[in-house]
Specification:
This protein is α+β, with helices and mostly antiparallel strands and about 100 residues long. The chain has helices spanning about 15-30, 60-75, 85-90, and strands at about 35, 45, 45-50, 55, 80, 95.
């Protein structure tokens, strides 16, 4: 990893504060019966046709917020497949993905 200039940096108090603030925002705003697009962050209710049951949303875990908080404070970018989530909760974080140009 040193060849790529990648360094291991421990969490700072600022990282943890940001992670906890965004975690609380997520818990307050989360819609358990809506699906969220990982690309744009849009939400939609989806009903399974066979049984007419609403499909529950994917749950983000606290480590997702620790990663985002740490990356926004300590790194200059984050490589992720979940751009919608990170752009919603960490808007100042530069995101890279396989489809980034």
């Amino acid at each position: 990893m040193s060849d790529l200039n990648i360094k291991r940096v421990p969490f700072s108090r600022e990282d943890l504060n940001l992670a906890s603030q965004t975690w609380m925002d997520y818990l307050e705003n989360r819609s358990p019966k809506k699906i969220q697009c990982p690309l744009c962050g849009g939400k939609k209710t989806v009903v399974w046709e066979d049984c007419n049951e609403e499909i529950s949303s994917r749950q983000h875990l606290l480590p997702d917020f620790l990663i985002g908080g740490h990356a926004q404070i300590q790194a200059d970018r984050l490589f992720t497949r979940d751009r919608g989530y990170y752009s919603t909760y960490f808007p100042e974080l530069t995101l890279l993905s396989l489809d980034s140009k």
